[in-house]
Amino acid sequence: MLPLQGMKIVELGHYIAAPFCTRLLADLGAEVIKVEPLGGDPFRGWGAQKDGHSVWFSVHGRNKLSVTLDLKSEEGKRRVKALCARADAMVENFRPGYLERIGLGPDVLQAENPGLVIARISGYGQDGPYRDKPAFGAIGEAMGGLRHLTANPGVTDHPPPRCGVSISDDLAGMYAALALVSACWGRDRGQGKGRVLDLDLVSSVFSLSEGMLPEHGLFGWVRQPAGAAIPTAAPTNTYLCADGKWLCIAGNSDLIFRRLMEMIGRPELSADPRMATNGGRCAHAGELDAAIGAWTKTLPAVEAEAALEAAEVPCSRLYDIADCAADPHFRARDMVMEVEDPLLGPVLHPAPPFRLDGVTPAEMVRWTGRAAGADNDHVFYELLGETR
């Protein structure tokens, strides 16, 4: 019942971007064969370990078959070619030119399978003056323009923080998954041979720039950090509560704004002609934030949240992962799943971010990340038909 059942993907990925792409495809039913170096994906050494096994990899490698190969050896290259010959697509995130140097470039692989779609993810792309520079996710955030915006306004003695996850790797992986499925769809509907897809970390972050580029081109504007506020909508901000917790409140529309002011005991502000439109409220956002902040400081975050929800004002406490794991909505929708990992025991997984009628999230997570090379025999001798 999974929509990508029958699609065959080879992953020559490591660390985050390519493996995140293939995890999404595997969650949707694709057969993903992850080719790891003989010592395993270096990502297995990141984060927490239990009994010598990577906790992160339980999610990172789920629904994938794992084989180990030395890509520089003749046997390794022969097997990669054989895997790609039976595949719909291959995903990789080596530095540009690496696969060509070891004899596994697109021309070689597509000679084995002209319909093969190849998704290549790199720091800066397969061409351009920066193509050979090394990059990790933080570099994508920095050059793509995101890290500039995560600073607090007026704070110059501390660097702008990262968002806390490898967002540029994840974005590039999502875009690669979309492009790969699109290319396979086009190939299977008469566009002929496979394509080579070029994704990169910097472009993936830069694509989120909303209206910043046309604003700069037309008016010379350079968007600056706005902190927790939204300069184009007010009142929207994050406010400190009596227990030291933070509460995000979005009172953007005229109706919601009136309900919000009534709830905090400041109906005169909603009646003020200066606040009649969003533009007026943006011009006086500081005054509104002060009024809302004075109210939130009188209540613990949970109580303030409950009061605003009763008034149908969009709001949320700033959740940490413990809040997510315990929240009844997360649990009711199986967004937090307890799965059995043979290497770790019971472990919590984030559910696939898709909801498909007729398929439960539990049915989408068929197995957790395997040990490196756990599927060598199955893949090489059963799927490829090699003799022992």
TrEMBL record:
UniProt keyword annotations, A-Z: Transferase
Pfam families linked to this entry: CoA_transf_3 (PF02515)
Keyword Transferase included in the entry's annotation: yes
GO function terms (MF aspect): transferase activity
Name of the protein this chain belongs to: CoA transferase
Organism in which the protein naturally occurs: Roseococcus pinisoli
Lineage: Bacteria, Pseudomonadati, Pseudomonadota, Alphaproteobacteria, Acetobacterales
